[in-house]
Design goal:
Blueprint: H1 6-20, H2 39-56, H3 74-82
Length: 92
Amino acid sequence: MLVMPEWLIRLWTLGKRLKNNGVPNPFELLNQAIVEEHLNKAKESFKLAAREIERNGTPEELPPIIVCILGKGKTAQGHAKCSIFFLTKILA
């Protein structure tokens, strides 16, 4: 079983919740990767959502979405590998 990073699951859930509340959003394009065979489909859906956000932004009903990953451990390394959204590295 493949474990998706928590932030990816939260964006997928956000897309479903907004859609159920009648708010069209780029996150409703996202797919989950429950097992290894679905990973490429999930990655492609995130790339599609990222392109949509770059072109049209997010709905006005949404506040800015900021994801912060602290440290240099497995979570930060996994985020850097999986991230298809905007990534800014801040060195302290």
